[in-house]
Design goal:
187 residues; mainly alpha; 8 helices; 2 strands; membrane; cell membrane
Length: 187
Amino acid sequence: MKTRDLAYIALFAAVIAVLGTLPAVAIGPVPITAQTLGVMLAGSVLGARRGFLSVLLFLVLVAIGLPLLASGSGGLAVFAGPTAGYLFSWPIAAFVIGWLTERFWARYNVAWGVLSNVVGGMVVIYLIGVPVLAAVANLSLGAAIVSGALPFLIGDAIKAFLAAAIAAQVRRSYPVIERPRQALATR
């Protein structure tokens, strides 16, 4: 791994941490935060591998006790609480977003970016986060969907659009993801 890759990974872990300084809005067991925007950006801008590693680095920093989550919390206890599934899903979400972004590279635009962010940043996070919320908070799956997914749909869709728009602009001005080899071979 190149030094530049390590710098990108650290930078996006810091971006997620900075987004945690925006106050969380508590609407139930799962707060509304801006940090999922950072997860979407990590995958969209860095690609699958580096996006995954940047979010994983962020979670390691949280696990060692740094209060980097929007609620001001950190430590191992957050990985056993009702929001643990959402936290565990973040690196996977960044990977899926990055993987899809890399596949759409030749025709990447805001629409493809929104699709990648919705699939990776919403579907993946909800598929992991909601069942864990149900299990830890002793809720039915339906109640977990009502409290852990439905209130977030509009906000997460807005974040998916913002991340796609930012990633499209970054790609035009300073692309971090390299062109796929087959695209280079055809030129």
